[in-house]
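Input (structure):
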């Protein structure tokens, strides 16, 4: 999630069906990652074509970003088509990836690397006036543990990839430290995305503002006058993206869904302290099989989720998003690029 310049809007035109589905095209050609995401969407039954533009930040603060837009049609599944995925040099079976794997496999060295990298991240955030340690302490010393017991589904079975160490946390997202540090980490990412922003608030306004404007512009233009009454935020983490969506569309009922009950407990505890016309509902579930009714949401969001998942999970997430989406609804995906220093934003 780092650097943003221009955001391009790529809506879909033709319905996705087994008869007329075509490989999606990218006009911007600014990032191989954009094409990769479109390829994944094609596998789940989306189509894309090019057009339009999106309101940009002021000239002084422009950054590069890409928005891919596709529309759900409700006309039946498309024939899956898979594009060639270009991977970072350190992934897959390359000499560099094997070296990285060997370093990580050596536990004493990995522990030192993890501690050093965490300290650098925290110090960098605090230099940007993000009170990382204070925010973390506030969460860990709160009554969030009581909320956890109310929100957790003890019968939920976690996918194998979710049980691995992740983001330098041994328990991945299934830990209190990961949940307590999620919001300051999110703030830090926004500041790195817009380094010349004068404050964290300004950086968030640019990054999140472009994302919300892309969603609104696409929905108004291509939804057939369907109102946004119900919103689902899949992989909502501690609810940062969910709250932005709820504030952008205050008359809608928003649902935040995540695999981590720790993250959801932090999100729910914060929401309980806010006064909102339609309080956000939090659901502990797998985004690939939400258990929610089909055709029940006008907007489905996956914000900074896909980069954390294996390809099979991304396909499952997008298929499930299409299943719960109403005809004329919008799916919005935003994610970061391994190859560029800016976010990849996708609004469907």
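Output (sequence):
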């Amino acid at each position: 999630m780092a650097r943003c310049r221009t955001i391009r809007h790529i809506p879909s035109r033709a319905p996705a069906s087994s008869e007329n589905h075509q490989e999606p095209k990218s006009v911007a050609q600014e990032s191989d990652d954009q094409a990769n995401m479109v390829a994944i969407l094609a596998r789940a039954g989306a189509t894309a074509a090019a057009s339009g533009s999106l309101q940009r930040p002021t000239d002084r603060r422009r950054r590069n970003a890409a928005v891919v837009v596709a529309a759900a049609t409700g006309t039946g599944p498309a024939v899956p088509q898979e594009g060639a995925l270009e991977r970072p040099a350190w992934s897959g079976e390359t000499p560099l990836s094997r070296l990285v794997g060997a370093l990580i496999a050596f536990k004493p060295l990995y522990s030192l690397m993890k501690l050093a990298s965490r300290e650098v991240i925290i110090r960098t955030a605090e230099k940007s006036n993000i009170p990382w340690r204070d925010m973390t302490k506030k969460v860990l010393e709160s009554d969030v543990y009581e909320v956890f017991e109310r929100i957790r589904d003890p019968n939920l079975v976690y996918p194998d990839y979710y049980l691995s160490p992740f983001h330098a946390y041994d328990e991945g997202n299934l830990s209190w430290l990961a949940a307590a540090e999620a919001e300051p980490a999110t703030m830090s990412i926004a500041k790195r995305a817009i380094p010349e922003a004068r404050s964290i608030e300004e950086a968030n306004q640019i990054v999140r503002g472009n994302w919300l404007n892309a969603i609104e512009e696409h929905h108004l233009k291509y939804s057939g006058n369907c109102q946004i009454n119900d919103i689902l935020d899949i992989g909502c983490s501690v609810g940062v993206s969910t709250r932005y969506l709820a504030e952008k569309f205050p008359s809608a009922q928003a649902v935040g869904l995540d695999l981590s009950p720790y993250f959801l407990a932090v999100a729910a505890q914060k929401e309980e302290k806010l006064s909102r016309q339609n309080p956000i509902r939090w659901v502990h579930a797998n985004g690939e099989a939400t258990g929610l009714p089909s055709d029940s949401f006008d907007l489905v969001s996956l914000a900074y989720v896909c980069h954390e998942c294996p390809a099979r999970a991304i396909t499952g997430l997008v298929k499930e998003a299409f299943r719960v989406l109403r005809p004329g609804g919008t799916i919005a995906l935003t994610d970061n690029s391994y190859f560029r220093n800016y976010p990849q934003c996708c609004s469907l």
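Notes: The CA atoms of residues 25 and 49 lie 6 Å apart. The longest strand covers residues 325-336.
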